[in-house]
Amino acid sequence: MKILVTGSIGQLGSELRFLSASRPGDSFLFVDLDELDITDAPAVDRLMAKEQPDVCINCAAYTAVDKAETEAAIAFKVNAEGPENLIQSCNRYNALFIHISTDFVFDGAATKPYKTNDEVRPSSVYGASKAEGEARVLLLGKRFYLLRTSWVYSSYGNNFVKTMIRLGKERATINVVDDQRGRPTYARDLAAAILEFVDGETEIPYGLYHYSNTGEATWFELASEVMKAYDLACNVLPIPTTAYPTPAKRPAFSVLDLSETQALNRISLLDWKESLYKCISILKQNEHAGQD
Ligand SMILES: NC(=O)c1ccc[n+]([C@@H]2O[C@H](COP(=O)([O-])OP(=O)(O)OC[C@H]3O[C@@H](n4cnc5c(N)ncnc54)[C@H](OP(=O)(O)O)[C@@H]3O)[C@@H](O)[C@H]2O)c1
User: Fold this and answer.
1) Domain locations in the chain?
2) Is 218 within 8 Å of 274 (Cβ atoms)?
3) Which residues of 23-58 are buried (b: 16+ CB within 10 A; e: fewer)?
4) Mutation probe of ligand 1 site: the residue of 4, 16, 29, 33 with most atoms within 8 A of C-beta
5) How many angstroms from the chain centroid is the CA of residue 213?
6) Which alpha helices (DSSP H) does 171-204 contain, by range?
7) In angstroms, rounded to a whole number, what is the distance separating the alpha carbons of residues 239 and 244?
8) Under CATH, which number does the domain 2-158+184-214+254-270 receive?
9) pTM of whole model > 0.85?
């Protein structure tokens, strides 16, 4: 199988690159912004025509949640036009398209986990741009899986877990929001699940699914577990969202319901704490090796 991965030096793309080493039977083509700008429709089409991949996994996105509040045009270009360009070319060259969306398409007013068909009501520009991307994929998609995920971290790139480790080394105490609840997701698990969808194409109906780690936490609970797992003495204190204002509004509750994914019986769903410890053990090894 030939698999094209866009946005390949981000967190998820880097995890797919790591996993690609254990799939010698497949040929992977990894491209990032400097090789393929997904907002450039003719460039997307030229690459798809030349390479004729069997699968295109879109890891490219505009993910600067707060900056998006003042950069709506670029957020919509990357997160809505980008996937539209890719899916049009996938349809033209008969490739399977995999696209990733976010819990931030919901406003967070729910009190029970969000189902895939719950109404999207984003409360940030980033969330609105991702919701528009979803809408275009759902409208135009033929062979596609649209996977919504949440609270993604990895040993690659910048993310909440790595920020907590850095702050945990620098400070005796940190304050972390304790009234936003969601499902942390290790990008390596998401990458593995994406490949399970690819491998299961003949059996898994096309469409929208939720994928995250199982269990749930607040950012305070996640930060506390990071300190414990990394053996950092930093004291984590819970604060309300009102004490940590950000330009973009975050959903207070964004737990994704995983029942449809679970019912497929072929996608690995893993506990968030166990996955966090796996990632942290890699980060510790990297620190020992002087890589971080
Ligand atoms: N991170 C989270 O907590 C989270 C949560 C839920 C869903 N998601 C979704 O999960 C997916 C993967 O996220 P991630 O955390 O891996 O994102 P990431 O680390 O920010 O990686 C995104 C990559 O896309 C590249 N990119 C930006 N604009 C592009 C363009 N026009 N054409 C091609 N590449 C472009 C970025 O390059 P530059 O860095 O140079 O801009 C970066 O390498 C995204 O769809 C995201 O919306 C993420």
Assistant:
1) 2-158+184-214+254-270
2) no
3) eeeeebbbbbeeebbbbebeebbebbeeeebbbbbb
4) 33
5) 11
6) 187-199
7) 8
8) 3.40.50.720
9) yes
Q: Tell me the one-letter amino acid at 40.
A: D
- Residues identified as active-site: 126
In the numeric block, the tokens 């819990």 are attached to: 103
Q: Which residue has the least CA distance to atom 10 on ligand 1?
A: 100
User: If you search the block for the tokens 């036009």, which residue do you land on?
Assistant: 81
Q: What is the pLDDT along the chain (292 residues), one digit of tens a residue?
A: 999 999 999 999 999 999 999 999 999 999 999 999 999 999 999 999 999 999 999 999 999 999 999 999 999 999 999 999 999 999 999 999 999 999 999 999 999 999 999 999 999 999 999 999 999 999 999 999 999 999 999 999 999 999 999 999 999 999 999 999 999 999 999 999 999 999 999 999 999 999 999 999 999 999 999 999 999 999 999 999 999 999 999 999 999 999 999 999 999 999 999 999 999 999 999 988 886 5
Compute φ and ψ for 46, nearest 5 degrees: -60, -45
> Cβ < 6 Å from ligand 1: which residues?
6-7, 9-12, 32-33, 36-39, 59-63, 78, 82, 100, 102, 130, 149-152, 157
- Bridge-based pairing of strands 181-182 and 55-58 is unpaired
CA nearest 129: which of 77, 57, 64, 207? 77
CB-based contacts of 212, cutoff 8 Å, min separation 6: 103, 149, 150, 151, 182, 183, 184, 185, 190, 256, 258, 272
